[in-house]
Amino acid sequence: MTAREMLPGIFEVGAIDWDRRLFDELIPLPDGTSYNSYLIRGSEKTLLIDTVDPPFAGTLFGHLDGLGVRSIDYVVANHAEQDHSGTLGTLLARYPMARVVTNAKCRDMLKDLLLIPEERFLVIQDREKLSLGDRTVEFLITPWVHWPETMVTYLHGDGVLFSCDFFGSHYAASELFTEGNPAVYGAAKRYYAEIMMPFRSSVQENLRKIAPLDIRIIAPSHGPVYRNPEFILSGYRDWVSDRVENRVVIPWVSMHGSTAAMVRHLTDALVSRGIPVQPFNLTVSDTGELAKALVDAATLVVATPTTLFSPHPKAMYAVILVNLLRPKTRWVTVIGSYGWGGKTLQIVKENLPHLKAELLEPVMVKGYPKKEDLAALDRLADAIAGRHRTLGAPAGGGS
Ligand code: FEO
Fold this sequence. Notes:
Layout: E1 4-7, E2 10-12, E3 15-17, E4 22-23, E5 27-28, E6 33-35, E7 38-41, E8 46-49, H1 57-66, E9 74-76, H2 82-85, H3 88-94, E10 99-102, H4 104-114, E11 121-123, E12 129-131, E13 136-141, E14 151-155, E15 160-164, E16 177-178, H5 182-196, H6 200-210, E17 217-220, E18 225-226, H7 229-240, E19 245-252, H8 258-272, E20 277-281, H9 287-293, E21 297-303, E22 306-307, E23 310-311, H10 313-325, E24 331-338, H11 344-350, E25 358-359, E26 363-366, H12 371-389
Parallel strand pairs: 8-9, 9-10, 10-11, 15-17, 16-18, 19-20, 19-21, 21-24, 24-25, 24-26
Antiparallel strand pairs: 1-2, 2-7, 3-6, 4-5, 7-8, 12-13, 13-14, 14-15, 22-23
The chain binds MU-OXO-diiron.
The site of MU-OXO-diiron (FEO) has 7 residues, from α2.
């Protein structure tokens, strides 16, 4: 694949990773991903924004060679994570005059992570501008979109926001641009859930910070470029808001069918009360889809059998994940079957300290659910329906 021209004199020169299926040894990537790198040619200076994951260094250098790039003056590091910075060392060796332009925090991290020497850096302050001759870029420090050192780069005149992880999606596509592809929207929402949701208030602040800019294109460093910025900006505004949907997410696991029977009964009871349900069988489910569902679901029900006196380990994995991702879930509870006792409920509660949700009455059942147990699940469905009525949301939920 060749470099892709975004605007006259501006090219996407990174790499598409069609086959990657796991990120950070944690995040499933059903649609692959890309490591976007952008070359901006000014009348006096040439600037590169972010690099690529190290295995794709050859792709980046091939694109630069193909464009006849003999020298690079500046390499902007919007983020120190290695999927964007990992090729900096080899790039600096290849372009000995290039300087790494970034903020002080990111510089320190790049020195620690990649052993980039101090003299190769040009450290900028928040809102500082850099002239390329007939083009000017401005740097805005935007912490916690994904790490504490993250920043974005705004190209004046053309109105392009180079946002790195912010607004990104793990979505491999040969098309450079997207304008309203629902698959990209879904991938971006999932990406938000996995990467940004734990820092929702920081994301809100950063959305406010970039709001005054005249943004005509958003060029993230993962996934397609947004030629219609409102497409993704409106999504982010919704995801970071306090709004939750009339919807229940049930991550569940069952060893011999008792907890599964409880999940089926509760699901039917909720649906009959006008509440959409997303059950995730944790033995087969994609945890990225679970994370995405948690972006705006009002209620979480963890359904687990008791195994060796504790929640099933697959349920604990989901609980730990939920706690790390800090969704805005308003109500939470636990249901499940046990054989002879244990501390399942206590352990789940203790492992959700970051969830600011009201705990609804759990339903823990000895053995297979009986008539009175199903009645308890009906009461739980009533309690959830009552809470959801306070949202004022119409039945049916959202995407
Ligand atoms: Fe795409 Fe946080 O790196």
